[in-house]
Amino acid sequence: GALAFARQIGKLPVVVRDSPGFLVNRVLFPYLVDAGEMFQAGMGAKEIDQPLLEWGMPMGPLRLIDEIGVDIAVDIANTLERAFGGRNEPPQILRNMLAEGMLGRKSGRGFYKYNGRNQEPNEKLKEWQTSSAGNFAAEKIANRLAFLMVNEAARCLEERVVATPEDADYGMILGTGFPTFRGGPLRFAESYGIKKLVAEMEGFRPGAGEKFGPCDLLRRHAQNGTKFYDE
Question: For residue 119, what are the β-bridge partners?
């Protein structure tokens, strides 16, 4: 399951206290699910993936779902949803792709069509998209998705799934290729400014729902002007 997935993306798994989906999957999946939801709402695959590449991720979230395999992604999301609720619920489009056998790279088609070394968006998915998405600016997309990882990493710390902020940050850098120069989700939150981040998360809430409700620990740091790391 989770460990095999971590090895598959060629990184060292960080073994943390055994909680459903442990750290890496827990922090990654709200991000993957939300990318799927933005796509389902009518945004192009490259419009979503490119900003995250530019932000420093080794690949965009939709491309990562293709690499993991849509079947495995839906399976992990279902498990996490049972444990942690709606922020992990796989979007309908993933279920449709699964039903059609579009499993990502291993079947040659997922969000992208794979042809040797080339990949291009899979036009077949258009029929399942609603065209209501406003086009977000690239920076907005990267922030929106990154904030979900911040929120879940903070929750893992709050729930003692990891003992220290370093464990959460190091786990994501090793386990997912989270950009080293950003220092992991919690370091990123601090350099971004926790107060500003919490305010912007609240701004996403009306359109995108409860998953953008900042967890208690984030909210406390924002209110008190405190940080995850003692400088």
Answer: 114
CB 199 within 8 A of CB 143: no
Selection from 14, 4, 9 nearest residue 64 by Cα: 9
The token pair at 167 is: 């464990």
Q: What amino acid is encoded at 207 in this protein?
A: G
**CB-CB contact of 32 with 94 (8 Å):** no
Tens of pLDDT, residue by residue over 208-227, are 889 999 999 999 999 999 99
Count CB-CB contacts under 10 A for residue 107: 16
Residues 149, 179 contacting (CB under 8 angstroms): no
Scan for tokens 């495995």, then name that residue. Answer: 72
Question: Which among 38, 58, 5, 33 has a CA at the least distance from the CA of 141?
Answer: 38
What's the CA gap between 67 and 70, in Å, rounded?
A: 8
Say whether 114 sits in a helix, a strand or coil.
strand
Phi first, then psi: give them for residue 121, nearest 5 degrees.
-55, 145
Alpha-carbon gap, residue 44 to 98, rounded angstroms: 19
Map tokens 């999301």 to a residue: 77
**3-state percent breakdown (helix, strand, coil) of the chain, nearest 5:** 65, 5, 30
Q: Across the strands, what pairs with 114?
A: 119
What is the DSSP track for 32-48?
Answer: HHHHHHHHHTT--HHHH
The pLDDT tens digits for 41-82 are 999 999 999 999 999 999 999 999 999 999 999 999 999 999
What torsion, rounded to 10 degrees, do the Cα atoms 7, 39, 80, 56 define?
A: 40
